[in-house]
Write a structure and sequence with these properties.
CATH architecture of the largest domain: Roll
Strand content: 25-35%
Number of strands: 7
Strand order of the largest sheet: 5-4-3-7-6
Distance between the termini: 29 Å
Number of domains: 2
Order of helices and strands: EHHEEEEHEE
Helix content: 25-40%
Oligomer: single chain
Shape: elongated
């Protein structure tokens, strides 16, 4: 069983979603199914079938979250001592060939949100940055062609 890397913030976010699904969503859908059943013949009851489909989705998500949390390898970024190298959880400031700067934190798949500056460890940019240090220039294969990025700084926040 392979470990799923997550930051402390990512684990907390998944735990909150799991709690919400179990304590709010699941009871609400059980109630909706009971109400739909009370309307009579369930074979032609669209509300019943929609509620059952939603229940399947919720139960699948709960199982997925429980699995991810059980197999999580939690990384406390503040305790990482990578000697200035880019590692999982690091926040990296980069500049492209045009001088345009960006700041990204390398996180797990479930935490990724590029609009918030959180990129997946499996993204092309993160894969190119891992193991490099401040001052290095890396090439990233992007859909628009290969881009060069210079690492301006690495932080472990």
């Amino acid at each position: 069983m392979s470990k799923i890397p997550l930051t402390l913030r990512g684990v907390e976010k998944l735990r909150e979603e799991l709690k919400r699904l179990k304590s709010v969503e699941r009871p609400a859908i059980v109630k909706a199914i009971a109400e739909a059943r009370a309307h009579g013949d369930i074979s032609e009851n669209a509300e019943f079938h929609a509620a059952k489909e939603q229940q399947g989705f919720i139960e699948g998500r709960i199982a997925s979250l429980e699995h991810k949390l059980a197999t999580a390898q939690v990384v406390d970024v503040t305790k990482v001592n990578a000697g200035g190298k880019v590692v999982f959880g690091a926040t990296v400031k980069i500049a492209d060939e045009d001088g345009k700067q960006a700041r990204y934190q390398i996180v797990g798949e479930d935490e990724a949100d590029s609009k918030s500056g959180l990129i997946s460890i499996n993204s092309p940019i993160a894969r190119a940055l891992i193991g490099k240090k401040e001052g290095d220039v890396v090439e990233v294969a992007a859909p628009g062609g290969t881009r060069e990025l210079e690492i301006l700084g690495v932080e472990y926040l």
